[in-house]
Each structure stands twice: as structure tokens, then as C-alpha cells.
Amino acid sequence: MKLCFKGDTSGLAAGIEELADDLGISVAADGIEIETIVSDDGTLEASYRNGQGLIRYKEPIHFYRALGLWVQHKRERNGSGFQRIETPRFETNGAMVDVSRNAVLTVDTVKRMLRAMALMGLNRFMLYTEDTFTVERYPYFGYMRGRYTPDELRECDRYAARLGIEIVPCIQTLAHLTEALKWNYAAELRDTSDILLAGSDTTYDFIREMIGSIHACLGSKTIHIGMDEAHQLGLGRYLEQNGYRKRFDIMNGHLRKVIDICGEFGLRPMIWSDMYFRLASKTGGYYDREAVVPEDVIAAMPASVQFVYWDYYHGDESFYREFIGKHKAFGSMPVFAGGVWTWGSVAPNYGKTFITTEAALRACKAEGVRDVFATMWGDNGAETSVCAGLAGLQLFAEHGYADEVERDELQRRFRLCTGAELDDFLSLNAFDETPGVAEGNMHESNPSKFLLWQDVLIGLYDANVVPYPMAEHYTALAATMAAAAARGGVWQGMFAFYAQLAQVLAKKCDAGIRLKAAYDRGDRAKLGELAEELRTIGAEVDRLRKLHRANWFAENKPFGWEVIDIRYGGLSARLETARQRVADHLNGSAARIEELEEERLYYDAPWVMPAGALGRGAYHRIVTAGAFSG
């Protein structure tokens, strides 16, 4: 499709050029004329009448969304006229992408995400970097972790600016710094293994270096300085050096110091709000409805900071409205952070993503919240590609321009913005919303993860899944994923990986259960068959590893893949050991297989296992009941 833009597009031409290939358009003098006008009422418009196009916009990001809407409707209407007018519901809306849990996106992947976000109409991209950026004075900061170079960050920042998107640096200036503080250089910086020593000049010199380093690379005047989940604040070396102090006072004092440093660079900081609520709660909970932050603490809280209310958990709009109200008591409107559930498993949890996002963003609009973003974490190894979560990001975007989001419209927008089918992406939800898991998977069961990694001889989760037809479920899912892969396009590799994952799970999910059953009844013939089946599973696992590796290296820096490689290597080794244990038993060199003689107990997790859940776990608790390290 050839287009010819009329009007002042001097600040937009570079972005149009970047989006042309994704949209399938070219700019030419003989193209369809589209008049571009800056909106005087804050709305955006994409329309076409009598052979003449119009795009009206307030900010560059609205132009790029409107351009996508224009192309989408022109194709859907097959030449007939159309008019689409939207009013932005938020001033800023975007994504926070975790690049600190092993997976550090390449510059090209960042650019791919920025193009999709521009078409969605999202104007903030927040890079969550605990230690994955360069601080030259501290060479061990981010060492061998795939940290971004200054030039890489500057390249991303320039590219985002061309698309009307602001990259906001997100760092940690109190807790969540285990990887940064594990080296000897940090001995004087630690309060505990993951928390900085508040009140120390050495600490504030370190923070100044961090802030200065990332500010030199990114042009945003906003910075997210973290400060969440500092559960042991003031209870390590701080306690030894200063004695006990009220933790509210430590928190406020530290925050003022860091805000002053931000001021030196002309930056406006935002922080996660949870520590204030946790310290006010008798149970230490963030979402404790009984917690009341004392008025003197609120009075002492710096006014020059934005508080971010993060909540990825609740399906009740009234809960979000209540907690937005609690945040308003701090004296300002909070920023809201929801979640696209890309963490905790090998595939995204779209059930919980959609339930929580719908409730939360309705509440934000009702309460007048003006700034929102979707977090995309990578906890426990970043086994799920951040790109697999794009459907959740589209939902956030559409809520930014409408009171309610219709499924059909979401599908059409997703197709335009990503070149993918929404149903294909939402089908990924079935990896964990299996038989035995309640609709929506609000309890975050992750069977695709524990069934992939668990040991066939130990089978810690076998009792959890034995009543359910998991093999049939994953066999059907493999066909669904294969069909998605067959559609080709830029997402073919991702769906090929997921098709293979479903194949492996279909074979492996009950292999340990069948192995134990054959052993218990003394069925030597069946044991021999199963030993050969384990060989086949091992070959399928190796194919899965290679597909996973190809996707990782297409999206991420190589650092961090070694963690996943080791997991696959451990799985392959244990499958070989299981074969050998069975062979030794069958040839008489091992009278017993002691692992198979142990009764399979229901996985008694350290969290409540309600009805409609099968369990969840991190890798080190899935693969062994022993001490994985330490």
C-alpha cells in the first residue's frame, strides 16, 4: 500500500520509515493522500472519505497508533470509508521488561518490541536493570551477566524517540541487589546479602555512580529507583553499626538521600510503594487491608517522588480501587503497575493476566489514575520469552484508548500490531491451565514447568497429577502449537518450540508414574519398554533444547543461556541414569530401585494449595528434595 502524507510530518518521518515494513506500506508521491493534523482536543482520529485520508493526533505516539488503525481499517473495509476516533485514557502507558533474570534482550529485540508498542499506542518502555548496565567504576557490577554497554542503551533510546516512546531507566537503590552485591567490592555496601547499607556515605557514592551511568545513556527525566521488598531492612550490618531504629525512619531517610542524588541529575524518581504498607502491616503483607501507614510517616515522606502501586494478583475491581485510595492518602496520584504473567513457568499465564488486567485498569480509569504500565518479569531463569506475552501488552494498550475492550477488536489490533493471531498466543495459556487447574489459573499452577524438569525416578509432583489426563491434554496442545507454527511468519520459531514442548510433556508427564506402577507390580517386560521410552524422551528433550536455544539467541544476549543449558543437561543426564537404573535392575546387578520404592506423596508446598490448583515451584524445588546448593 502506497501512502502520501500531507501536512507537517517532519518529526514523524523517521518513525514512519521504521514502521513501513511491519505495516506493509511505502511512502510515495502517487500514494493515497493522508492529511496529518495536530489535534486541538486531545483525541486521535484515523479516517478515510472520498479517496482522502486523515490522521489527527495529539502526540507522536498517537500518530503511530492512528497510522496503524488507518492501515488496519483500510484493509478491513476493502476501500469503503471509515472513521475511528479515540480519546487516550492515560498520559503514559507501557511495559516494564525484566532484563535482570538472566535474559537480557538484544538491541534488535528491543527495537522489535518498540515497533509493536508504537502501533499499539504505548509510549513508555521501562528497562528493569538491577545490574545489567555498565557502571565503569565498578567492573564487577553486571560482570558476565550480559549488561548493556552505554552505546547499546543510547541506540535503544534514539530508536524509541523516533517512535514517540520514552525509555525509562529502572534500577534498584535498596534491595533486589543479590547479584550486584555478591562480589568482594561490595563488602562495605551490604546491609544484608541483597540490601544496601542505608546511611553510609559509601552506599550513596555507589548509588550516585549507578544513577549517573544510566542517566548518561537514556534521555528520560524520570527514573524508577526501586526500593521494594527490602524485608530485612536495617536488620543486618545496619543493626550491628547503629542499633535498632524504626524501619519507617530508615526508609524515609534513605529515600531522601537517593532523591537528592536524583536531583543532582535533574531526574524525577518513582519508587514501588510496598515497603510503606509492609512496615505498617502486622503480618508484613503488602495487600493487608488493615494496614494503616501512620500520619507522621506520611508527613515525612518526600513529596517529590511518584509512588507505584504494583498488583498482579486480584480479580476484584473494588480491591484495586480501595488500594488506589490508600495510595492517594500519600498526597499524590499513584502510578499503577499491573502484570503480564510471563514469569514463573515456561509459558505465559494469560488467564490470570486478563482477569487481573481487566479489573485493575477499569479501577484505574474510575479513580483517575493517569500513568500505568505492565510488568513482564522473568523470575527463575526467564524460561518464557517476553515476546510470548505480547497479547497481554495489547490488552493494556487497548484499555488505554477505550472504556471496555471487545475481544474481536483485540484480535484485529493484535494482528496489525504484531503480525500474529491472538488465538495462537492465548493458546499458550493451556500449558499451565490443564485438567485439574481452575479456569483462569489464578493460583499460578505451573505444570508445564514442574512436569518438564521433575525427575522421573523421584517424581515430586507425580501425586499431584496422577488423577488427570495430562498426556491427552498435551498431545492435543502439540497439534494446536504445530498449526500455529505452520502459519509461519516471524513467530514460527517460537511456536515450533512450544509444539515440541507439548510433545515432550505428552510423553514425559506420566513417565515416572508408569515407571513406578510397573516396578510395584513386578512387570519386568513393561519396565524394559519404559526404559526404551526414556531413551526416546531424551532425544525429544535434546530437540527441545536446541529449539529453545535458537529462540533465546534470536531474542537475548548469550549470557544467561548457560543456566537453561545446565537445566536441560541435568534433565538429559537424569533420564540416562533412570534408564541405567532400570537396566541394572533387569540384569540383576541392582536388586532394588530404591527411588521407585518410595511412596509418592502429594507435594506439600509452603503455600496454601487450594482447590483448582496443581502446584507451582521453582527449578531447585522441582528437581530434588535435597539441597540443590549450599
Structure in words:
By secondary structure, this protein is α/β, with parallel strands linked by helices. It contains 24 helices and 14 strands. α3 links the parallel β7 (92-98) and β8. The mean pLDDT is 96.
Summarize the structure.
By secondary structure, the chain is α/β, with parallel strands linked by helices. The chain has helices at 13-23, 60-76, 107-120, 150-162, 178-181, 201-215, 237-242, 247-264, 274-280, 295-300, 317-328, 350-367, 390-399, 407-418, 422-426, 447-453, 462-465, 470-486, 492-508, 511-520, 524-555, 561-586, 594-597, 619-622; strands at 2-6, 26-27, 32-38, 44-49, 52-57, 82-86, 92-98, 124-128, 166-170, 222-224, 268-272, 306-310, 335-339, 371-376.
Topology:
Layout: E1 2-6, H1 13-23, E2 26-27, E3 32-38, E4 44-49, E5 52-57, H2 60-76, E6 82-86, E7 92-98, H3 107-120, E8 124-128, H4 150-162, E9 166-170, H5 178-181, H6 201-215, E10 222-224, H7 237-242, H8 247-264, E11 268-272, H9 274-280, H10 295-300, E12 306-310, H11 317-328, E13 335-339, H12 350-367, E14 371-376, H13 390-399, H14 407-418, H15 422-426, H16 447-453, H17 462-465, H18 470-486, H19 492-508, H20 511-520, H21 524-555, H22 561-586, H23 594-597, H24 619-622
Parallel strand pairs: 1-2, 1-3, 3-5, 7-8, 7-14, 8-9, 10-11, 11-12, 12-13, 13-14
Antiparallel strand pairs: 4-5, 4-6
Helix pairs in contact: 2-14, 3-4, 3-14, 6-8, 11-12, 12-13, 13-14, 18-19, 19-21, 20-21, 21-22
